[in-house]
Amino acid sequence: MQLWFTEKQTNNLAISMQVRQNLHREQSPYQDIAVLDTEEYGRLLVIDGAVMLTDADEFVYHELIAHLPMFTHGNVRRAAVIGGGDGGSIRELLRHSSLEEVYLFELDERVVRVCQEYFPKVSSGLTDPRVRLEFGDGIARIAQFKEYFDLVIVDSTDPVGPGAVLFSQEFYSLVHQALSPGGLVVAQTESPFVNRDIMADSREKLAKVFPQTYVYLGAIPTYPSGLWSFTIGSKGPDPHKVDMDCVAQSIATWPLRYYSAQMHTQALTLPKFVQDIYR
Length: 279
Description:
- With about 280 residues, the protein is of the alpha/beta class.
- It contains nine helices and twelve strands.
- The protein folds into two domains: about 50 residues, Roll (Spermidine Synthase, Chain: A, domain 2), CATH 2.30.140; about 220 residues, Rossmann fold (3-Layer(aba) Sandwich).
- Helix content is about 30%, strand content about 35%.
- The strands form two sheets. It has a seven-stranded mixed beta sheet, with helices on both faces. The protein has a five-stranded antiparallel beta sheet with strand order 1-2-3-4-5.
- It is globular and about 55 Å long.
């Protein structure tokens, strides 16, 4: 008998994976958390029935959401990740020698503990002394900072349930005040094929708060449509004006599998149908 996991990604679209074994399932105070071992993508983290990450493709998401804004800024000393309890964004941020301190604001501690047990390579950076783990309302915490962080990463779930507020203009305003002059925020902003309204709305709201906004793309096969967007709100730095020779030299010894100096440029090169979303 074959066992399959199916995520209904939209009303008209689903993705299915054959499952070897159900490794873990629990109902935390906030959500349903499951870890499955799949034939095609290895271990799979599912929260409230939605794919969060897999062994096979998590590197694409985490390398893009961390390194492109880090090199855009050029000297991030203090960073914060809101959501991202799997630790993948933290792992990538810690590769940068400039980083002195990074906060992880995660609502649900059980996500972190489950990932430390079942995804140790993803969560490997969470015990680094530069990391400050805080559990609870990340929005309330970010509101307590004024011009403190050089970079804020919004590593959120989809804009439903508890994650919906992380796509609001009010939240982006709180992030703006928490960022130092020249600071950046980057958020995952869904798929240009099936979430066009979310992408347009996210950039519009960021543009009302930040003087510059930029969109870039990555290929993540287990996310709806396989093409995913990230949106930057910037107080100054422009990701198109990064010294690519410096990037190439900095990452030469890093075990990266997706991000590179060339990919930095390519990720920012938007196809016409994506450009049309913002017109």
